[in-house]
Amino acid sequence: AYDRGMATIAVSGSSGLIGSALVTLLRDEGHDVLRLVRQAAVELDEVGWDPARGEINLPACSGVDAFVNLSGAPLARRWTDRYREELVSSRLNATRLLARCAVELGPQVTLINASAVGFYGDRGREPLTEDSPPGTGFLADLVQKWEAATDSARDAGSRVVLVRTGLVMSNRGGALGPVMPMLRAGLGGPLGTGEQIWPWISLRDEVRAIAWLIDSEISGPVNLASPATTTNGELIRAIADGLGRPARLRVPTAALRLAMGDLATDIVASQNEIPKVLLEGGFTFKQGTLDELVTWLVAEED
């Protein structure tokens, strides 16, 4: 573990929804943050890298205590065969490169690597802890390969944490990005049957949990989801109520498949993800219930 304010942390994906919020939080906590960027470094807090070529300015990372790898092509778009390849390569290339960096810099370097609830596949109401076996399907296979790409760092003695993130809730994007405009207009409703369990986490708790894990001794997979068990229908209706809007227009699964292709399979998947490691480790959620989430989201609207 690191003393607060004493760590140097390199973050990839730092311009994304989670990455930008994480960089802000880490700096507020007193950490020094380096942003990995796909260009020659032009700012003092930037390090140039090219995951596709396996290149990075390693000397600039010599004082790094932890890498946080949030790189990967966005999931929320139509999955063509070509885009499936990009989903895989963008994650594996970045992860293998940072794992190699951790090996070269030494076992004192921690690697916090993004992962996803998709590891578990579609599992209905089965409680899914970090000990649960993987599921099946494209996304489950992808996540297994993604996590395995960290093996070299773990085998060399680095602490490796795999953050299996659920659906990140924010007014600025994430899982609610395509949904919020419809909800604000009173045109939203459950997706598919609405009975599938959606494992959500607020953006605030997502970055708080990652920062907490950096300062911990925890290793291995960690589920990043609220303790609340919430169906898609319950979530959508609660947010609509908080906005003072109806949510009666259910989107049929067939319509989702027409619009999103194979991604629709994962939109209507049910995953009862339980944050066992976070809870047993003493992490405290700021938005741990559906009511707390809606209150926070509505406050963000004002």
- The quaternary structure here is single chain
Indicate the proportion of strand residues. Answer: 15-25%
* Low confidence ranges: none
- Mean pLDDT value: 93
Number of strands: 13
Order of helices and strands: EHEEEEHEEHHEEEHEHEHHHEHH
Radius of gyration over C-alpha positions, nearest whole angstrom: 19 Å
Helix share bin:
25-40%
End-to-end Cα distance, whole Å, is 38 Å
Side-by-side strand order of the widest sheet: 4-3-2-1-5-6-8-12
Largest sheet: 8 strands, mixed
Task: Give me the secondary-structure category.
Answer: alpha/beta
Question: Which shape, going by the Cα principal axes?
Answer: globular
Counting DSSP H or I runs of 4 or more residues, the number of helices is 11
Task: Summarize the structure in words.
The protein contains eleven helices and 13 strands. It is globular, with a radius of gyration of 19 Å. It has helices at residues 17-28, 81-105, 138-148, 151-155, 180-184, 203-214, 232-242, 253-260, 263-267, 276-281, 290-301, and strands at residues 8-12, 32-37, 46-50, 55-56, 66-69, 110-116, 127-128, 160-165, 167-170, 173-174, 200-202, 220-224, 272-273. The strands form three sheets. The chain has an eight-stranded mixed beta sheet, sandwiched between helices. It has a three-stranded mixed beta sheet with strand order 10-9-11. With 302 residues, it is an alpha/beta fold. The longest helix is centred in the first third of the chain and has 25 residues, at 81-105.
